[in-house]
Amino acid sequence: MGTVEEQKVQQKKAFGWAARDTSGFLSPFNFSRRATGEKDVTFKVVYCGICHSDLHMIKNEWGVSTYPLVPGHEIVGVVTEIGSKVEKFKVGDRVGVGCMVGSCRSCDSCANNLENYCPKMILTYGGTYYDGTTTYGGYSDIVVADEHFIVRIPDNLPLDAAAPLLCAGITVYSPLRYYGLDKPGMHVGVVGLGGLGHVAVKFAKAMGVKVTVISTSPNKKKEAIEHLGADSFLVSRNQDEMQAAMSTMDGIIDTVSAQHPLMPLMGLLKSHGKIVLLGVSEKPLELPVFPLLVGRKIVGGSAIGGMKETQEMINFAAKHNITADIEVIPIDYVNTAIERLVKADVRYRFVIDIANTMKSSSSS
Ligand code: NAP
Ligand code: ZN
Ligand code: ZN
Question: DSSP letter string over 144-182?
């Protein structure tokens, strides 16, 4: 690894797009990545998905952001360099990095392959790495990460449409499994048909579950049923439709990114039904207790998934041909894409074509 001085010399020039303040406006940004350490994999980023969490973060909606902030945690690419002690990857491999790049590797969560719940988990961007540097995400040309936090993208998955699996995919797959909402014949509701929601429909269907989409957008109905494979579709503001579906669901995966009422959703659950909250709205949700008591219902949460489960999810996706439905965009469309994401105007995930459109010569 060499001395600190030597490592500085070996640092890699990197180029990305960063937000500089709470406006969230992204613009070109030059920075450096650490030299490839002995357990590190360095890869050229080919595509990066735009998660709604990127939007929350660039605008500091959760109050934890620091600037400059290079977002992006649905990163896929091709390995260009490996450290001397890397065991699982070689140059040329198709790989990805999701929401985290470090954890303590010794606590109970880490020991149980739940690095995502490690108190010292390091986020892919906006986190502080062991060497004290700030982590920068995948709206950039290269990534350096410890091989433990790298997943392999199976050959039959296209890199662009696989990218969103690194966050959206694992975020919905993990709670379907953990909360036992993966049993054939069960009925699961998916609230919010965006990036997370549309892959939740695909995973749940592949598990043999009956799926109902609950949406604020009536214009998504045809596609949800005919294209994504949902069994039925409820418009959450249509009280007649919601009333007719009362007490029919074993579970609900709630992916809504904004404040919304839980009461109507709880009414959809059968006794012992579970509602799993995945969205992190800027303002807190109100929890009505009475409908919880009546029917012993459960409200839970879930955050991404551990590295072992993330690879398992990707392999499951490869087996069942599950990828995201994407709109591939050039990097200089990113600010427009973010504006459209605010309005839920995307079918169903934006993915940035980094390799072909991010050129450091456009740096300012
Ligand atoms: P997205 O693509 O923007 O989808 C969110 C969907 O929620 C929208 O498409 C819309 O669906 C619905 N929605 C938006 N505003 C709404 C409102 N005011 N009331 C009701 N429904 C509304 O976002 P995403 O990338 O899927 O992320 C969703 C949320 O999950 C975000 O808060 C994100 O930060 C969070 N997240 C959490 C984790 C985790 O580990 N738990 C991981 C990733 C993301 P319809 O048009 O169908 O109504
Ligand atoms: Zn995400
Ligand atoms: Zn740990």
Answer: EEEGGG-EE--TTS-HHHHGGGGTHHHHHHHHHHHTT--
